[in-house]
């Protein structure tokens, strides 16, 4: 079983943000003009495929693809070229490659090994890592491909590995098993030919879905019976649309229509059903889930990009240094610093238990966003026919019969109360049907259902015929509770200078309520609401002309935007300090994102302190994110927990997934995963800020130490007749970064912190220093560069000037290598001590690494200059350190030079701290006398915040295999999946359940999900 | 001046640290002599008349060969030219059984000649010369006078001007100096110590003044940037 779970995680791990995207659906459904494309469109050669079930020989000529999958990035042949290519896309590696190539030419003063060795080491480690990761992927693939599955052979079920499965095979999938390929559902052990599946791996929804087999195939359950099954399936070509499927099953010269209701997708698992029998239609990479796989976009931090620029600058610097050298000769020679956060609120779903219901369901009229309702027709044992309908209040009220005004008024009042309390509401209604009416209607319904063209449209029309004259039952409301600590977290984040946008699928009223609850909007704010729920738009929609609707909405959106923008600017001009908020719904957003209006939208929203977008599709979430990312050039962070957040998580600079209740989809697409929204404070304000500081420090320090080192060499060049003679021994040069100055900076990169975790959260404003990029401005780099020039001059001129006339007590004089070893010793000591000045905290690790590095240099030079190797090398360095150390001059210089070199930095730091202190420095001063281990206590508190339930849910979320064992429905909040799918022109997934069933469920005691 | 008095020659504008010059030597040959054949690094002074040169290379070829004699009233002073090179060089870098061979036999004479009967480890002026200098202006130890020189005593120096520095506009100097436990007189280091020390005193005064003139209470929250901004607005 374990293997089975792993494999599905894998196959969906690469499922990208396109889940539910319409890219190919448009092609299939000939409505491509309306669909918005995201990602690639699969070429569709023949329009359908024909599969002969249970007949391998008949399928042979078509050569369907096998069921084995491969998710590896490389194979043995492509590994080296592709892997190296990936490595050399980094500017730094390319730069060192160039240097290495140059060093192998005779013009180079240094031996190639000093450059080639470090580069090869870096490349080797990176490639080994890549190879290891790919090997793990390969092993995962192998374990998936060799998972056993029961396939019908002859008259028996035989166990074969997944990879041997072929299109047309009949398979048996047992309870909790995963579907090995895309199957057409034929028979189930459950009565009524239904089965329950969990699609959490596909779309993040944890509620179980019902699939129902065609009645004609219910009997093919036992192997002897199934062996008799001979059918021909005609269906669409493989595509990546998870929610659509059109096909026909032709058996015994009868054509039976197949819909998504009979489709079992790879990646889903079977629940509450002993076993099912299905026919394989799409295999391996042609399954819908695999067609959805998209390479996870590789993200680069702004810091990394700046680092590239820095390397280029360094390169330019070196190049001009070389140029100066050459001219002389001819005469003689990374943070992320998120500033905008997209969030959507999380749902706590209430779970109930399934109960078997005795009555018979005759028809199900599906939910979709145009209908905004769902109905079911059922027959009670006594023959009474009833239609039950649930849906949005507006839709149900339109279809109610006359009379019963009290009930309507009361329910309306309830609805308003519930709505203002931030609850999600649904209206329930029913209609008694007589047999004659029903039979007449059912005929039309069956016709519509089996039509191959415009099936959904016809179904909608037919549904309209019967969903009228309803009698109101009442309304329901469910609480969509915010996660604990969300408002406090949002307030903290906005104090940190982070702008927060809410992108939600909820309707406008709910979204506003949630925004109030989160402190995003309050009554002191000026609210701009751009909604499509205006009379003008509604009238246009009633007329039904799509072109006209578009024109009207575009016009009104444009007017609204301009009006709001004007008002906003007025508010900003007056110094009243009124904060602004923008609320816009998905339909308007669609037009506002139009290239002509985009600038206005951006302008307006950047002036607002909060922005709430409601009723938005996953695609729009991604579009809004990209708008801010590219249009405003801000750093964006998206956080969400649902499958519909995947695309926005991938679009943002930083994607954060909440490993919550809605499956692992968001987490898998994310860069960081957290268990609860409020942990975002810790993620950003504590760890994000620390790592930003550390990265800045590490990068600037690397820049400094190498520049200092290189410049001493440069000054020497001036005095060698520009001949390019090297100042330092080759090994000094190559081990400088690897041994003598490596460890301390790693320690700083790991442990340095300016203020403790608790203070970081107590002063969220500290985060603004990161947003303003205070620690990695060009100015900061310039200061480091200035002092490295100063220090290198000290190193070079002090050592050479002092050795000019210096000799030891027996009159002997230093040579070139004595002087350079001395200079190098000073460089190593100074550069290590400089780091000590840059650290905010000095622990014993700092001491250990800094003094250890200096010691390492001395140990190295004692050994290196003490031995004569048998290899051919110039014995320049022989005995130099002993010669040096036999003179007092060496010790005097070693004491003086680092002090003189660090004098400048000391002065600068003193002045800076006194006159222009950074915020963190003030905070450090305020809390100077706080007990040392307060941060540790705080961290423990964080851990203690988890209630046993939370801890368990977190632990469960870490273990997908345990997590997905649900036994019941979730109360379906307004159908996200279907809503978003239909927003994009995709047919909504089938959800064959009914109000009555739900009603019966409500009598059961609800079990809150843990 | 008290003995020992060290005699240095000083050359300037002499690029002993030029890349081509620095690498034109072969340490293996210096240690093992003719047994060591691969002397390509010594080009262009690798061989002459078809025979290898020991010691090969430009450094050895350009050996400094001025000679000095110091005469006082009482007669010529004894200049000890032994023990002028580092012990480690003599014992480990120049072979005891390696004798000069085919040296300075080419058409172009670069500098001094070597006595082929003395092993390289005893040719101390060569060893001193071959510890190449760091800068284009450098001193090298010529010898040691092991007699005291009195104040106001006149010393006549007889020098044989063999070494051609006119061609590159270089200058030659002779320096006589003594040393103590610290080493030789080192004006620079002393000055530097005083300068840095003084600047530290000045800086401490400066900081003290700043503290008085522009006081900033430690940990004053009004200095936090967000507090400053709200005050301003």
Automatic annotation (TrEMBL), chain A:
Subcellular location per UniProt equals: Endomembrane system; Membrane
Keyword annotations from UniProtKB, A to Z: ATP-binding, Magnesium, Membrane, Metal-binding, Nucleotide-binding, Translocase, Transmembrane, Transmembrane helix, Transport
Pfam families assigned? Cation_ATPase (PF13246), PhoLip_ATPase_C (PF16212), PhoLip_ATPase_N (PF16209)
Where do the P-type ATPase N-terminal domain residues begin and end? 51-115
In short, the EC number is: 7.6.2.1
Q: Locate the region Disordered.
A: 12-33
- Which Gene Ontology terms cover its molecular function? ATP binding; ATP hydrolysis activity; flippase activity; magnesium ion binding
Q: Where does Mg(2+) bind?
A: 641, 645
Where does it mainly reside?
membrane
Give the main EC class: translocase
Listed binding positions for ATP are 349, 367, 390, 424, 504-506, 615, 621, 644-645
| P-type ATPase C-terminal domain span | 667-917
User: Which cofactors is this protein said to need?
Assistant: Mg(2+)
Q: Which reaction does it catalyse?
A: ATP + H2O + phospholipidSide 1 = ADP + phosphate + phospholipidSide 2
Q: Where are the transmembrane segments?
A: 310-332, 731-751, 778-799, 819-836, 848-867, 879-903
Q: What processes in GO biological process is this protein linked to?
A: Golgi vesicle budding; phospholipid translocation
* Record-linked InterPro entries: ATPase_P-typ_cyto_dom_N (IPR023299), ATPase_P-typ_TM_dom_sf (IPR023298), ATPase_P-typ_transduc_dom_A_sf (IPR008250), HAD-like_sf (IPR036412), HAD_sf (IPR023214), P-type_ATPase_IV (IPR006539), P-type_ATPase_N (IPR032631), P_typ_ATPase (IPR001757)
Membrane topology per the entry is: Multi-pass membrane protein
The family assignment reads: Belongs to the cation transport ATPase (P-type) (TC 3.A.3) family. Type IV subfamily.
UniProt-recorded name of the protein: Phospholipid-transporting ATPase
What taxonomic lineage is listed for the species of origin?
Answer: Eukaryota, Viridiplantae, Streptophyta, Embryophyta, Tracheophyta
């Amino acid at each position: 079983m374990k293997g089975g779970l792993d494999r599905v995680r894998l196959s969906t791990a690469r499922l990208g943000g396109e889940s539910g995207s319409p890219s190919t659906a448009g092609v299939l459904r000939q409505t491509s003009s309306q669909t918005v494309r995201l990602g690639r469109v699969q070429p569709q050669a023949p329009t359908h495929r024909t599969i002969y079930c249970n007949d391998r020989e008949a399928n042979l000529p078509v050569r369907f693809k096998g069921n084995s999958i491969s998710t590896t990035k490389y194979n043995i042949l492509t590994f080296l070229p592709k892997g190296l290519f990936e490595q050399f896309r980094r500017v730094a590696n390319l730069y060192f490659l160039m240097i290495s190539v140059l060093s192998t030419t005779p013009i180079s003063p240094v031996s190639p090994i000093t450059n080639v060795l470090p580069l090869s080491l870096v490349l080797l480690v990176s490639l080994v890592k890549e190879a290891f990761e790919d090997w793990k992927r390969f092993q995962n693939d192998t374990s998936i491909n060799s998972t056993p599955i029961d396939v019908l052979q002859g008259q028996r079920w035989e166990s074969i590995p997944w990879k041997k499965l072929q299109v047309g095979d009949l398979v048996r999938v047992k309870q909790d098993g995963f579907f090995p390929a895309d199957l057409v559902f034929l028979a189930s052990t459950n009565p009524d030919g239904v089965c329950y599946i969990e699609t959490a791996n596909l779309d993040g929804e944890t509620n179980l879905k019902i699939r129902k087999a065609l009645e004609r195939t219910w009997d093919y359950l036992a192997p002897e019976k199934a062996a008799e099954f001979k059918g021909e399936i005609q269906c669409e070509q493989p595509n990546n649309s998870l929610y659509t499927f059109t096909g026909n099953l032709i058996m015994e010269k009868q054509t039976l229509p197949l819909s998504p209701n009979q489709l079992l997708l790879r990646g889903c698992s079977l629940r509450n059903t002993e076993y099912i029998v299905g026919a394989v239609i799409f295999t391996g990479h042609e399954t819908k889930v695999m067609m959805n796989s998209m390479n996870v976009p590789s993200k680069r931090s702004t810091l990394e990009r700046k680092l590239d620029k820095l390397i280029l600058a360094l390169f330019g610097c070196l190049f001009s240094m070389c140029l100066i050298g050459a001219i002389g000769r001819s005469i003689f020679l990374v943070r992320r610093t998120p500033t905008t956060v997209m969030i959507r609120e999380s749902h706590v779903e209430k779970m109930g238990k399934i109960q078997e219901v005795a009555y018979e369901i005759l028809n199900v009229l599906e939910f979709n966003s145009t209908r905004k309702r769902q109905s079911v027709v059922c027959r009670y044992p006594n023959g009474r026919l009833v239609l039950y309908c649930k849906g949005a209040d507006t839709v149900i009220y339109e279809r109610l019969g006359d009379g019963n005004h009290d009930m309507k008024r009361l329910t309306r009042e309830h609805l308003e109360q519930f709505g203002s309390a931030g609850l999600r509401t649904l209206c329930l209604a029913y209609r008694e049907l007589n047999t004659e009416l029903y039979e007449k209607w059912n005929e039309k319904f069956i016709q519509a259902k089996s039509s191959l063209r415009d099936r959904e449209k016809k179904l909608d029309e037919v549904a309209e015929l019967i969903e009228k004259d309803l009698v109101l039952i009442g309304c329901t409301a469910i609480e969509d509770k915010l996660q604990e600590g969300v408002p406090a977290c949002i307030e903290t984040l906005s104090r940190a200078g982070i702008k927060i946008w809410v992108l939600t699928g909820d309707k406008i009223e709910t979204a506003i309520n949630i925004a109030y609850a989160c402190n995003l909007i309050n009554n002191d704010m000026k609210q701009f609401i751009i909604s499509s729920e205006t009379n003008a738009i509604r009238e246009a929609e009633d007329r039904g002309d799509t072109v006209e609707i578009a024109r009207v909405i575009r016009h009104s959106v444009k007017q609204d935007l301009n009006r709001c923008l004007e008002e906003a600017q007025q508010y900003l001009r007056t110094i009243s300090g009124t904060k602004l908020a923008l609320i816009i719904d998905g339909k308007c957003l669609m037009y506002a994102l139009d290239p002509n209006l985009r600038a206005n939208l951006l302008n307006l929203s950047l002036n607002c302190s909060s922005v709430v977008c409601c009723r938005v599709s996953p695609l729009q979430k991604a579009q809004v994110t990209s708008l801010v990312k590219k249009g405003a050039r801000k750093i964006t962070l998206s956080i969400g927990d649902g499958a519909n957040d995947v695309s926005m998580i991938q679009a943002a600079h930083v994607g954060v997934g909440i490993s919550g209740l809605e499956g692992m989809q968001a987490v898998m697409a994310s860069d960081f995963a957290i268990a609860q929204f409020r942990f975002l404070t810790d993620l950003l304000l504590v760890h994000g800020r620390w790592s930003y500081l550390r990265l800045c420090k590490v990068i600037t320090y690397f820049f400094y130490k190498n520049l200092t080192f290189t410049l001493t060499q440069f000054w020497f060049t001036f005095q060698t007749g520009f001949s390019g003679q090297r100042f330092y021994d080759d090994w000094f040069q190559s081990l400088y970064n690897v041994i003598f100055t490596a460890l301390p900076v790693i320690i700083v990169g790991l442990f340095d912190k300016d203020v403790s975790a608790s203070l970081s959260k107590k002063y969220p404003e500290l985060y603004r220093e990161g947003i303003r990029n205070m620690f990695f401005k060009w100015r900061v780099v310039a200061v480091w560069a200035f002092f490295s020039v100063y220090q290198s001059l000290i190193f070079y001129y002090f050592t050479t000037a002092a050795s000019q006339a210096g000799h030891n007590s027996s009159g002997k004089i230093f040579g070139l290598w004595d002087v350079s070893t001395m200079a190098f010793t000073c460089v190593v000591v100074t550069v290590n001590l400089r780091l000590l000045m840059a650290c905010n905290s000095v622990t014993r690790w700092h001491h250990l690494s800094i003094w250890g590095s200096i010691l390492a240099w001395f140990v190295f030079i004692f050994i290196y200059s003490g031995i004569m190797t048998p290899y051919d090398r110039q014995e320049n360095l022989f005995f130099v350190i002993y010669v040096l150390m036999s003179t007092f001059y060496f010790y005097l210089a070693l004491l003086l030079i680092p002090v003189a070199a660090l004098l400048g930095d000391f002065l600068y730091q003193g002045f800076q701290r006194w006159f222009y202190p950074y915020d963190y420095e003030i905070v450090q001063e305020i809390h100077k006398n706080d007990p040392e281990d307060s941060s540790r206590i705080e961290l423990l508190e964080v851990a203690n915040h988890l209630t046993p339930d939370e801890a368990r849910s977190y632990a469960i979320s870490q273990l997908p295999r345990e997590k997905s064992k649900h036994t019941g429905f979730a109360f379906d909040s307004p159908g996200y999946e279907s809503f978003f799918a239909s927003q994009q022109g995709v047919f909504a997934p089938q959800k064959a359940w009914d109000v009555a069933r739900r009603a019966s469920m409500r009598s059961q005691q609800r079990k809150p999900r843990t | 001046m008290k003995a020992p008095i060290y005699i240095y020659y000083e050359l300037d504008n002499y690029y002993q640290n030029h890349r081509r010059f620095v690498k034109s030597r072969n340490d293996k040959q210096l240690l093992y002599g003719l047994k060591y054949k691969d002397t390509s690094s010594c080009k262009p002074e690798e061989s002459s008349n078809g025979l290898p040169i020991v010691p090969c290379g430009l450094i050895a070829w350009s050996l400094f060969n001025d000679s000095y004699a110091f005469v006082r009233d009482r007669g010529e002073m004894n200049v000890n030219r032994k023990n002028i090179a580092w012990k480690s060089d003599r014992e480990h870098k120049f072979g005891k059984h390696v004798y000069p061979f085919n040296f300075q036999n080419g058409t172009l004479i670069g500098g001094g000649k070597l006595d082929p009967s003395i092993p390289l480890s005893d040719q101390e002026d060569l060893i001193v010369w071959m510890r190449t200098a760091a800068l284009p202006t450098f001193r090298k130890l010529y010898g040691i006078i092991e007699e005291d020189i009195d104040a106001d005593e006149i010393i006549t120096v007889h020098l044989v001007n063999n070494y051609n520095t006119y061609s590159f506009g270089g200058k030659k100097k002779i320096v006589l100096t003594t040393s103590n436990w610290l080493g030789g007189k080192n004006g620079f280091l002393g000055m530097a110590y005083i300068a840095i020390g003084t600047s530290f005193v000045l800086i401490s005064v400066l900081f003290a003044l700043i503290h008085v003139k522009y006081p900033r209470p430690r940990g004053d929250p009004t200095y936090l940037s967000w507090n400053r901004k709200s005050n301003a607005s």
